[in-house]
Design a protein that fits this description.
single chain; mainly alpha; 2 helices
Length: 62
């Protein structure tokens, strides 16, 4: 959906370089933020597994 809106915006704006640069920058920042969110979630899952294994010694690590 965002790609469609971006394409329509590019067609309607006379100076397309600024809009194209803004779209590219938002895509890069969005990708980096998403990567950090998934990395943070994975770290929390790993900490949860280690805490569960410490609390219950019979709990599997995987």
């Amino acid at each position: 959906m965002r790609a469609v809106v971006s394409a329509v915006g590019l067609m309607l704006v006379r100076e397309t370089r600024w809009l194209a640069a803004a779209i590219a920058l938002s895509s890069i920042v969005g990708t980096l933020v998403t990567g950090q969110v998934f990395g943070f979630g994975a770290a929390l899952a790993l900490i949860g597994v280690l805490v569960a294994a410490r609390i219950d010694r019979t709990a599997p690590l995987t």
